[in-house]
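pls ignore typos typing on phone
magnesium ion + seq
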Amino acid sequence: MALIVQKYGGSSVADASSIKRVAKRVAEAKRAGHDVVVVVSAMGDTTDELIDLAQQVTPLPPQREMDILLTAGERISMSLLAMAIHNLGVDAKSFTGQQAGVITDEAYGKARIIDVTPSRIRDTVARGSVAIVAGFQGVNPSTNDVTTLGRGGSDTTAVALAASLKADVCEIYTDVDGVFTADPRIVPSARKLERVSYDEMLELAASGAKVLVLRCVEYARRYGVPIHVRSSFTTHTGTLVTDQPAAEGEIVEQPIIAGVAHDRSEAKITVVGVPDVPGKAARIFEVVASAGVNIDMIVQNVSVAATGLTDISFTLPATDGAAATAALSEHQPDIGFASLQYDDTIGKLSLIGAGMRSHPGVSARLFAALSDAGINIEMISTSEIRISVVTRADSLDEAVRAVHTAFDLDSTEDEAVVYGGTGR
Ligand code: ADP
Ligand code: ASP
Ligand code: MG
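k done
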């Protein structure tokens, strides 16, 4: 008998019949003798719809109210799922993040979990019931206000609960069969990974592979929680995210490349005509940081000798574009740059693999694949196990497919299936 934390994403509980299907799965795990804690996301695209609704009421909703609004999505799905499980003759109780003991800092909209005190969850499970927990939310103890963990945060709730409850495994149920070598929505020939290390999964998640949210992988690595990513629509074995060595006799391939990720959520700012003297880059990035904006890639052009001026470009989340541009414009006189250019039609492709540490020629092969496909590279950045490039947004899909093929990642078997979801 094991303690299993199961998390069901929005596409797995999109409507009443999906909720009943998930309830059956939960009841089966319970009847098989396991202790089961379930974390659930809001139904379908509910969170996006609530955000749209708020935008219709006011262009700048107060963050506190926004968090109260968004936590409502998970309350709907958790109670409906508890009812559906109950209807199958298995006792189930639902809990908000606060009731489940998910304690966070005070940052509305992007709160971090600072503690988990799941005594009510433990009691519920000890009494033989299934505990259902609303994902993506917690409470800040100093204000007693509810907070949300940022988009995709139910994954983090699940891993944090699994760590705190010392669960045997955290199962993340979604609308694809696991973690693939690329997003199956873009690359139908993507291959499912049997296993992936925390480091590779961290880079994939940080580079836009939204099948797992970055923070949940950080959490899992810190506490050594094994994650099994799988589909709620099939019984196929999914992908194991772990650093534990494979069991003896199990053949695990060690490919150079784990996968190709893409990200359409960034924008590029170019600061044009910056005086090429010490201290200007520091000032620019101080200003951007003090606006609360995290930046990703940076490129500084060679300065033109005759003018002594240079251009500095950097990428950032497009949602922070307005804040960064406003902050820089305010400081234009003291920094002394000529103008700002803002471009939100960029895409980022990242190639990830622990094997690239020891295999020369990976960058050359990547750049050749892009050039053969006629795709221009605008920026480049690397880490030990990742190479990222910025392209035009409208050539990103083609770039991902070209690179996937160039690294022999295409599957020779069936096409990857996307069972649900709208991809929103
Ligand atoms: P959920 O609602 O279950 O949380 P998400 O939409 O957040 O699901 O994540 C699942 C989606 O992640 C898939 O439908 C797929 O389009 C996308 N995805 C992106 N990259 C990958 C990848 N490398 N492997 C699998 N899925 C990926
Ligand atoms: N419902 C939230 C979102 O859409 C959290 C989640 O699904 O993980 O971002
Ligand atoms: Mg998700």
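The pocket of magnesium ion (ligand 3) is lined by residues 9, 152, 155, 210 (CB under 6 Å). Residues 3-245 form a domain with the Carbamate kinase fold (CATH 3.40.1160.10). more later
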